[in-house]
Amino acid sequence: MSIPSSFIERLIASVNIVDVIGRRITLERKGGGYWAKCPFHGSGEERTASFKVYEDTGTYHCFSCKESGNAIHFLRKYDGVDFIEAVEILASQVGMEVPKQEVAIDTSVAIKINNRAAEIFYEQLKSNDGINTVSYLKERGISGDTAKFFQLGYSANKKPSLYECLEKEFGEEDINESGLFGKNDNGDLYDRFRDRLMFPIRNIKGECIAFGGRLIKDKKDQAKYLNSPETKTYKKKYELYGLFEIRQIDKRPDSIFLVEGYMDVIGLYQHGIKNAVASSGTAFTEEQLRKILSYTNSIYIVFDGDEAGYKASWRAAENALPLLREDTRISFIFLDSDDDPDSFIKRNGKEAFLNLAKNSKSFSEFFIETIKEQDNLSSVEGRSMVARFALPLVNKISNDTLKQAYINEISKICDLDLSKVIKGETSIKKKNTQQQQEEVKTNSSSVLRKSVLGIFTALIQHPKLANLEEFDLIQKESKFTFLRDAQDIYLENFETPASIILEKIENEKIKNIFGEALVSEIKLSKEDASSMIRDCIELISQSNAEREEILKEKYNMQELTSSEKRELQQIILKKDKMSQEEAALIKNLSSN
Ligand SMILES: [Zn+2]
User: Fold this and answer.
1) Ligand 1 mean position to 437 CA, how many Å?
2) pLDDT surpasses 90 at 192
3) CA of 49 to the centre of ligand 1 (A)
């Protein structure tokens, strides 16, 4: 899938970078700017904050490791997502729809097949075949409107099969990859879902990507619930059943209930709780929690009150640790062991369910309670066991203030000073990365780097200097063409925001140099800026001569890579005069 760059530009202009970064690390407002300890270098134990977020330019910069970028860069690095995912996260946060320039090659057919299947199931529910399923839904108090809202369906077990319906429209391989079919021993495809109430699982855009299917009557050797397997459109750990649907009602609800089953989401909806989502057949993952937290600041995690529910809730708590922030509320609701949200609300009504939320257990309460239960706190051995259990967990908290608060709390419980232990543990591990960063820094702080920095600084402060003729001296094929690219962007529009230029720079090092230029404290007059550009470009073009020497040397050692061969050819070809020796060299370079 490729996304039009005009959309990326609008997106970057619409998101508030302080909000995006502030959701993930602790930002402190200081002197009109936002500062943090850099999440990309060091141990988080630095005394001074070196990472600054610039609300007006939509960028961030670390004065220590020089890491720079915009909101998309931050998400890619910090969340570890790819470009498209980062764009989608940001777009959903500001309620923008990501347009596709071309139809997505790899998932569009799979989505079409699942969408088509959802239509077929929906029609079958309304047909005579669906009578039993409809009366099942009625028995459970689900209205026709609710069924329609969730696009519930029925997978009939008769001819023509779903496979026979789809094979006229789609290719065998695509059908096979849709997740809707199994393969028998003869290699024939058969309908995975037969005689089941069908729950289409839709992504945030409303496209059907998978299904859950429930038996209406118990059958021997068949699971009550069956889900689509993971496919290229359906990655369980990211998806939430009902999220698309509840966002039709409220794009940014005050809170979201996270429940275990499809029928819980639907039952709650039927009784007026229109902000519940379910994980589909997995424990609640960090990715799902993160996704929910980009739509609301408050999550109620609802569990059945049995042993399995408690275990699942603890796993959810562990997954939530890296996401905790001061303004994030995560609470737990435990039902009685024979209850689920659907049965509870059906019996007790909406108000009673909302009361559960009022009396829910806060994250910290649940966390501390569980930690205390790990061993006997009246013995030294027990207390140190509890500390050992708690330490790695607390280390997962990325918000400094909260981390400190938890360390203090657990230190009290265990009667030990854990802050020292935690510091000792992390500083050893992180020192190595810091050393690495130092090395990178010294290697790259060459004259050329400074020249590039100078040119960027001058251009950012005086974009109209992009008109300077000196830019023509930078050869199109040289490794400095990115400077011409930046020049072109400014020539097109002198008011292009810096965050958008950052987006267009692909090379990580250059992006960081641009970021550094962006935050430069040096204020240049137009004259100074213009001579800075002239001098720096001269330095860079001189470096071509040096580069030529280096490449020729490597050629003699037979160490040229194919791209270096091309580079050397270009350098020679651009000369006004070519020596005989060079002519021969060109010939040799092209022949192998
Ligand atoms: Zn840094």
Assistant:
1) 9
2) yes
3) 9
